[in-house]
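Predict the 3D structure for this chain.
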Amino acid sequence: MKSTRGPGRAWQRMLSGRRLDLLNPSPLDVEIEDIAHGLARVARWNGQTKGTHAFSVAQHSVLVEKITSELRPRLARSARLAALLHDAPEYVVGDLISPFKAALGIDYKDFEHKLQAAIHLRFGLPAAVPADLKTAIKKADTFAAYFEATQLANFSPEEARTYFGNPPSGLSRPKLVPLATEEAQAAFLERFRRLSE
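Done. Predicted structure below.
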């Protein structure tokens, strides 16, 4: 029997009223409030963390920007903004954990790169992150994962070192407390505004 529903929908309506085309995202349809709202509601570690609240991607993003800035203290604000926005596509696609992606055998990179490019262009950043900055952000992301794993996700330090390496001894050790959704959203927006001034 032929479907009468018409072609499938490939866009997401945002609370701002924007309609983001997922296959061909336009920077004009990207709003920071939508990103903050979405990331504050996406749980890291599939929600398998300690605490009353989930540890959100918004909170993780603020942590990664802080670690990136600590690793590279002379970074320009625009580079720090790129660090804050490193997981921004997840406001649309969610946080698919690496083991799940590996189990499915699906590569989401092309899709994520298109969305990331639109986000970057919207906020005056290069569509593609320069290789040296990308490496620094990835390192900070990995160290953030180590802290999250050991403090929130029940990994032993030995197990976390196996998967995420060992953060350098000079790096400050954050005390992670998962925030309520509204607080995580506000913290992300506040950091964005400071870096965008």
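DSSP finds nine helices and two strands in the chain.
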